# Entry
Amino acid sequence: MADNLLVRVFVTLLLVSSATGLLIHYDDAEDSHTEYPTIDELSTNYGGYVGSEIHFWGEVTAVTENSFTTEYYWLSFEVVNSETEVRIGDTVQVYGTLETDQRISAQNVVRSDPMGREYMFGVSAIAATFTLLVFFRYWEFDRLTLTLRARPEEGKDA
# Structure
């Protein structure tokens, strides 16, 4: 029985360390997964990306009649040629062409409804709670063998 427990602990540690290694690798290589320039690339070589396409999420900080300004990490961009109505504080997704003077000629701007994010988290929390309740209604954790097992049906012996 002790050997079985030792094997389970070893396999669990192996799986957790493998998953951790994969997550660290993905984080390290994340910037190479996009076709658009990253914030670091824009900060160090802005002129090299003028004329290229850019895609990012940002918060609107100023609105004028023909444009608006949005923050992308520590950079500010003036977004022009957008038909989308935005207000200060809105979160927007911008896709367009990078121009000189921190300007973007928008090809598409999508305003994100703030309630959509709250709704998503609320529904996810309710679904997770319901899933856990149903799971633990029919399954239980056995501490001696470190396994999950089906709960005995009511009226029947295990």
Summary: The first strand starts at residue 53 and ends at 63. The mean pLDDT is 87. The CA atoms of residues 52 and 126 lie 42 Å apart. DSSP finds three helices and seven strands in the chain.
